[in-house]
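pasting for ref
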Amino acid sequence: MRPSLLDLSRKELRGVLAGWGEPDFRVKQLETWLYRRHVCDVRQMHNLPKLLRERLAAEFAGEPLRETAALESSDGFTRKLLFALPDGREIEAVLMRYSRRNTLCISTQAGCAMGCPFCATGQMGFMRNLTAGEIVSQVLYFARRLDQQDRRVTNIVFMGMGEPLANYAETWKAIRRLNDPDGFNLGARSMTVSTVGLVPAIRRMSKEPEQVGLAVSLHAPDDALRNRIVPLNRRYPLDTLMQAVRDYISVTRRRVTFEYALMDGQNDSDAQADRLAHLLRGLLCHVNLIPLNPTPGSPWSGSPDARVYAFRDRLQAAGIPTTVRLRRGIDIAAGCGQLHNAHSRQQQI
């Protein structure tokens, strides 16, 4: 299997081209095509010599993703794609359009080892980590389509399939390439990494120079419930996780987002809102409430709107900045892993 050009760092790309006797400015030309013009097919890179294009095409793959399924919401604001990787594994990515933003939700793993029972990706298990090139390629794929509408990617959330911090090295390579002023050139503050609570990786992230946002998928205000909803909590219970978050805020001076998927009758009572407020009091944080996107394999459903807003109001009354995430793509099952599972079932029929 040929490696992808998108998996090469600038240093590696420079080494390859120098080994072929190419001048150093070819690196800049090639990176401009890949990350500024969003072109992965070397045959279209017309300012490169024909012999170089032919050699690149022979030795490197361009686009590592192949679109296998697509869904668009009825309002046209959300588009979800299923991609096949070169080894046949499949991943998902979502484009969410807003009036002034175009946000991508991208995957960092095929499957997930965290095993959260409400999550379609958690139900499928872990298959493998993605490479940095496979992560970046999801962004470039949507960027090409937005180019046609004279729009651009404004935000990226690493909240698709997989636990980003369990694939730390490749995720961070992708972040640096996307943030590189001579690469894709997206501001670090326009990117957010989500985690279910890998404490050592949160501590490691606090030392990175890129000012990427941190979102913690919390979903419960106490260990007894979180042990059921987020199995990793048994390894890193709330006291340990919250200390890591406090230390992260102290080091970075950045606000942390807590994601809280509201599940009817499970984690959405007034008492649980009060416990959550107590847990977060005094932190530089924001709570993002998400009515659960139901999945066929999950025993739980999303909280009704009245309960969602009552929970929000109780947190706000306690002084915790809280918003309810605008529900996008529920009519196309845009929750992570749902399209993959539906497509797999269809293929088996």
